[in-house]
Structures are given as structure tokens and as C-alpha cells.
Amino acid sequence: MTYRSTYQAAATVAPAIESHFERLLQAALLQGGDELAPAPSIGVISSVIDVAFWASLRKEESRSPKISLAYLPPQLAGQPLVFQERILLTPYVLTKLAPAVERSGIHLGIWDDENGDLYVWGTTRSIPDCCFVLEVIEPGLLVVKHRRIKGFGKFINVAVLKGDEIKIIDEDSKSLPDCPAMLTSLIDYNSPTGWNDSVNMLVQLAASMRAHGHGGILLVVPKDNDTWRDSIIHPITYPVTPAFDELRKLMEQKVSGHDLVHWQEEVNRTVENVAGLTAVDGATIINDEMELLAFGAKIGLSSNGGSVEQMLVTEPVIGNIGMVIHPSQNGGTRHLSAAQFVFNQRDAVALVSSQDGRFTVFSWSPCEGIVHAHYVDALLL
Q1: Under a CB-based contact definition with an 8 Å cutoff, are residues 101 and 74 in contact?
Q2: Residues 212-240: what's their mean pLDDT?
């Protein structure tokens, strides 16, 4: 018996997700990939999303479930934990199993039998490239994602569903003029980003900033240019002297296979340390080699430039239309000061995290001659 979807958004978004995974699998095969996860069908996608959505609205011991589901057979899962008996995939089952698998990196393995019924076969920490993954973030909020092809770091988000709101990531956004490297990395599953890449480090910092929930600003300035100081009120509250360069040193390390896990743990700890500073009132400042220069810094009006009067706002999701607005319409003080900083320091990038989870990347667009605000929270979930 095939599961019948009752969550309307699941059926609506399934065709676009199926097309994405078909393109992903073709790209991986062209790059010589092997032991790839199979592309999910529309029926599988719709059913998995439906079950996960209804499970997300339930509670177990007063806690909402946080679950990661991976669609693959056990033989593709490395060293999985396999249950003796298959368990039919239902909202009730997911709610009951959620407490055991809510920690990061653990996936519930699901597959379908000869009758087309989906079942849970066990758990795994290892999944192959192209594997369809669905994460339950909070009640009613689901994210479809997968690991980048032959890559490391954050998974690539494909679609975000929140109740009846659907956001399908626009893969063509990476081809737009002046698209920041960080945004390209978050969208492009062919991006050759590795753990020891400054762009990927910036992605990890952004994800950690969003996770701590306090809000904050991270300014990324050029290594050999001190003009950014003209846009900071002096004295700086918490300057760092000498610059904290642990992330740069970690990026420069040559890591062998057996040292990779330990090295990644060191990266995670250092990223959390630096990202945690953004919770302090004011801006945290790093250079483009990931060296920490200061935190708690107050952004001011540069003596060499005027006030920012307009900016372009976009979100890399299908159907989004960019709008030119006054920066004061974009949010609170953090967003306005970040836009002002980038307007005056056009070779810098500003990352702004709000307490409500909204995340914006500000960069200067030479083609448009304007500050460009990229809403990227759909990419960081």
C-alpha cells in the first residue's frame, strides 16, 4: 500500500525536488562518482515530506521532534545500525524515535519495499553523495538537502517548507553578476569547496552565528587594507592584538585521512569560539584570511563617504523579485549599520544574523552600483 499525502505542500514541491536530484545524480556520474544514492521519485519525496510534517507537529514528553531522514538502502550507509525488524514510516513512529536521533549527524535510514511502502530500517552517520535528506527543524519547518558532490562542509539546501510557505532554492542565483563567493558555495553542489577553504570557513561561521540565536554582525575586511578603520568608532571596545589566527592556521594545515576527524573537531571548536563573539553588542571583525581583529566594534559614518540611501534586496529562491529600498526599511540598527559599512568599504562583506533566525549577507555590487542585501536564511537552515 502506497502512502497517500495529505499535506498539500508536499505534493506541490515534489516535482521540483525530483528534477533537482535527477540533475544532481547526472552531474555526479559525469564526475566519476560511484556508490551514489538513488534519486527519489515524486511519490517518495511527497510521502516522506508528508509524514515528517505531521510528525513535526507532535510532541514526545513535551518536546517537539528534531529528525534527519535519509533515503537510502542499508548497504550504502557505511556502518549502519540496522533494526532487526523494518518499521513502517508513520508520524507516530518518527515521534517515538526522534529522541534517540536528534543529535547532529545522525540520520534515520528509510527505504521502500516491493509494495512501495516506506519503512525505517535503522540509523547511520554515513551517507553517500546525492542522498535525499529531509530535516525536521521545528514544528512545521522542514528542509530538503544533500551533501555537495565530492565535498565537505554544510549540506546544500534544495527546498524549505514552513507550513504552506514553500521556498525552492534558485540554482541560477550563483550565475548572477557580483554573487558573493559564500552565496555561490551555499547554492552550487558542484562547488569544489573543502574544509580548509576560506569560503567554507565563512559558511561555518555564518551557520554558527545563526545557531547561537543572539543576533550579531560579522565584518569581513581585506587582509592588507586598513581603510575599514575609518568606518569604526574609536576606541574599539575589544581589539584583538595580535590578531587571533587559529582559523588561518587550521586552513593551512595539510591533513591526512586518519587525522581528518580530529582536525574537523578543532575547526568546529574554533568556529564556535569566534562566532560566539558576535553575540556581544557591536560588530566582530575578521580579515579575508580568517584572522580575528576585534569584536564589540561600533560602526560609524566614514569621513570619506556619505550615507547609504538605497540598497537592492534579493533572496535566492525561485520566484523572488529584487527590490530597491531604503536601508531603514530592511530591519533594525544592525542591518542599517552593516549596509552603511559596505557602502563606505566596498571591498568588505557584512554578515548579519537576527535573533529571529533571519540572515543577510551585504556586499557591494559594482554592476548595479549599489549595496546588495542577500537574504540567505533559507540556505543556512
Answers
A1: no
A2: 95
